[in-house]
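Troubleshooting entry. The earlier prediction with benzoic acid gave an output that would not parse, so I re-checked the input for stray whitespace and re-submitted. Clean input:
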Amino acid sequence: LAKHNKVAIFAVPGAFTPGCSKSHLPSFIDAQDELKSKGVDLTICIATNDAYVMEAWGRTSGGADGGIMFLSDGKDAELTRALGLSMGEGGVMVRSKRYSMIVDGKSGVVEKYFSADESSENTWAPSVLSKL
Ligand code: BEZ
């Protein structure tokens, strides 16, 4: 998906969880026009919930209609673990830490990375937009 595109990717600890539904996701829904005007072709939301949950969250939140692609990293949190961004190992489920990134698929480079280690707000769309 990223191969020929500039992609905004954001990952959340859980679909339908309060911080993700009330802040992180809506910030990217609201930012779609500005992201596109700044050259972002596609926004992808990732969580380790299964694909059915991600589809339902995308549909009921308005995020899918708002142009965001919802992807499941539900198969052993393979991507999340490969990125070294998993949490909750050994618990009810392996979750992704909250983060956002701008990926330039043409060069194959993660151009910008926004970690929640700094603050949750650092991963929200206004923070991303401020660096584009
Ligand atoms: C969070 O929104 O940060 C969160 C949600 C569910 C589990 C852990 C963290």
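This one parsed fine. The beta strands are 6-11, 42-47, 68-72, 86-87, 95-96, 99-104, 109-115.
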